[in-house]
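Hi there, hope your week has been kind to you so far. Would you mind checking whether the tokens look sensible for this chain? I owe you a coffee for this, so here goes:
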Amino acid sequence: MAGRKDDGSAGDANYGTIGKDYSIYRQPEPRIAAFINAALGTARTVLNVGAGAGSYEPLDRDVTAVEPSASMRAQRPAHLSVAIDAVAEKLPFPDSHFDASMATFTVHQWSDLDAGLHQMRRVTKGPVVVLSCDPDLVQQFWLNAYAPDVLAAEARRYPALQQIGSLLGGRVTTLSVPIPLHCKDGFNEAYYGRPERLLEDGARLACSAWSFVSQETSRRYVDRLRRDLDNGTWDICHSALRTLPEFDGSLRLIVSQP
């Protein structure tokens, strides 16, 4: 397993650097949360792996959170449980300890996907729920015309949906999760109809793929987007997205039932 960063981050992104304002831009979106809650079924005890600042943790269940990054653990609001410092690849729980487990926007950052998903299945007697993105669809988003290296990094990092399902085993269902226009969770596609938000440093920093390009490259991408917003080029091509109620992008929910 790859070494952990200074703040404990165990994946390929250093949240000690990029995660400082994460909880400001990455708030749980209620419509996405509804998909996750439905997939968790009747589970009372839930494990959240790669829990970050706590987005999407259900408040009406007994949740145990695991998060290796000290920066992210520190941003968890007071009403959530304190997260355990551990990694997906080595979960410190006995077999079948939880009714269900969940992992949102995290599996693409694990150093050993096979080990992490097998651990989740090992400690879970019910559904394992994974929110991720389809790498085959990531680069179809309009942002690819402005920041191709950013979306190429995303596409490389996200594991194939079939791979996730195969590693979890059991009865696997994959659901397309629509993204609402005013999505509170600020991942790249969440700004499909609000492109100006991607001019904000904090918004980009809260999307880990931006950390895989140089600052010079990022500035060039942002300048290109700003120019096309200022001169109307973006709206000539994409104005309909500004009022589109929801966007069917790459966001997917993989649910494994034993």
Q: What stands out?
A: The longest strand covers residues 251-257.
